[in-house]
Amino acid sequence: QVQLVESGGGLVQPGGSLRLSCLASGLTLDYYDIGWFRQAPGKAREAVAYISTSDGKTAYANFVKGRFTISRDNAKNTVYLQMNSLKPEDTAVYYCATVVEAVVVIRTLKSMEYKDWGRGTQVTVSS
Questions:
Q1: What letter does residue 120 receive in the DSSP assignment?
Q2: What ranges make up the beta strands (E) of 1-127?
Q3: What is the per-residue pLDDT across 70-82, written as a single tens digit (0 to 9) for each?
C-alpha cells in the first residue's frame, strides 16, 4: 500500500524558513516523479514544485521561485521542500504526491496531475 507522510510544517514568522519532508512507503520514490502542492482554505489547489525521476530536473511555480527548493534523498525514500523567505500568503496545507504528468513552460511549473498524496502538513506564516 502506497503511503506518503508529510512532516515539518508549523508556525513561522514572515521571512522565516521551514523544511518539509515527505517519507514514502509502499513504493520506491526514485521510480516516480514527485511534486508538492498546497491548498489554503477557500482556495484552489496550487502546484508548487516538481522533481523528475529521470534526470532530476526541477520546476517551480512563479510565486515560489528563488525561495523554495525541492530535493530528494532516494536512499531515505524521502523528498524535501526547503522553504525560505516565507510570506503570509504561503500559509496552506502542503502535500507531496506522485506525479502522473507535469506541465512545465519555460522552466515554470504550471500544473500537475497527481496519483497518490499524503494527508498534508500545515504551514502557517504569521507574526
A1: -
A2: 3-7, 10-12, 18-25, 34-39, 46-51, 58-60, 68-73, 78-83, 92-105, 108-117, 121-125
A3: 999 989 999 999 9
